[in-house]
Amino acid sequence: MRCFVAVALPATVRERLGAARDELRRRAPDADVRWVSTEGLHITLKFLGEVAEDRLVEVERALSGVAGRHPALPLAARGLGAFPTARIARVIWAGVVDGASLAALAGDVEAALSTLGYAPEARAFRPHVTLGRVRSRRGLGPLANALAGVADTPFGEWTAHDVVLYRSHLRPTGAVYEALAHAHLTGADA
User: Fold this and answer.
1) What would the pLDDT profile of 102-131 be if each residue is shown by its tens digit?
2) What whole-number distance in Å separates Cα of residue 93 and Cα of residue 108?
3) Residue 43 φ/ψ, nearest 5 degrees
4) What are phi and psi of 63, to 5 degrees?
5) Stretch 35-51: mean pLDDT
6) Residue 42 falls inside a structural domain
7) Is the dihedral of CA 5, 20, 147, 26 positive or negative?
8) Is pLDDT at 138 greater than 90 in this prediction?
9) CA separation (Å) from 164 to 3, 18, 30, 161?
10) Cα–Cα distances in angstroms (integers) from residue 115 to residues 38, 69, 128, 153, in the given order
11) Residue whose C-alpha is closest to residue 142's, from 30, 17, 22
12) What burial letters (b/e) apply to 135-158, b meaning 16+ CB within 10 Å?
C-alpha cells in the first residue's frame, strides 16, 4: 500500500486554505493544476511509497519512538507560493511557520525510517502544505500574479499533537487519504 507520514491540519486551517485555493482557481482559471481537496491538506514529513502490510507494525513502532522524543508543536500556516518559483511552478503551496521544530521532527522521522530501508529524501525538508501540482505551464502567468498578492496571508495557528501514518488511495478525481496510525508527540519541551 502507498503510504506517507504527515502532520494533520485542523479543520479551520484546512477550510481557510481551501478558500485560498479556490480563489487562486478563480483568478487563474486556465492554469493546468491538479488541486488538492480540502480534506486532503496536510504537512508531509516523509513519503514512503509502497509499504507491505506486514511492515506496518515496524513503521508504527519507529514513529512512536520518534514522537516520544518531540513535544507538541505550535505551528502556523502563512502565505502562498510555488516550488521552484511562481513563474516555473511545479507545486503550489502554503507556508508553515514553526521555527526549527518541524524540521527537527522531519529529520528524526527520516532517520528512523531510513534504518528500516526507506530511501532518504534527496532534498532538504521545506515545511509546506501542498495545495496543487502543476501539470503544464499553461496559465502560469495569472497564477503567479495571484500568488504574489497573498505571499504573507495568515491562515491560522494550531498545536500539532500527533504524527500520522497515512495510506494514499489513488482515484481518478485525486488521492484520498486514510489515517492508519497516530503517534503522539509526548517529548519534553527543550
Assistant:
1) 999 999 999 999 999 999 998 899 999 999
2) 23
3) -110, 110
4) -65, -40
5) 96
6) yes
7) positive
8) yes
9) 10, 21, 35, 10
10) 33, 17, 25, 39
11) 30
12) eeeeebeebbebbeebeeeebbeb
CATH number for the domain spanning 107: value is 3.90.1140.10
CA distances to 27, 34, 37, 95 from 146, rounded to whole Å, are: 6, 17, 19, 16
Q: Does residue 189 belong to any structural domain of this protein? A: no
Which range of residues forms the domain containing residue 91?
2-184
Residue 190 domain flag: no
The total domain count for the chain is 1
Q: CA triplet 145, 148, 150: central angle to 5 degrees?
A: 120
d(CA 101, CA 74): 9
Q: What is the pLDDT of residue 178?
A: 97
Give the C-alpha separation, 36 to 109, whole Å.
24
Residue holding cell 500556516?
77
Distance between CA atoms of residues 59 and 51, nearest Å: 9
Catalytic residues: 42, 128
26: its cell numbers: 478563480
123 closest CA partner among 138, 103, 139: 103
Task: Give the strand order in the sheet containing 73-83.
Answer: 33-35, 128-134, 91-97, 73-83, 154-160
- Asked if 78 and 152 touch (Cβ cutoff 8 Å), the reply is yes
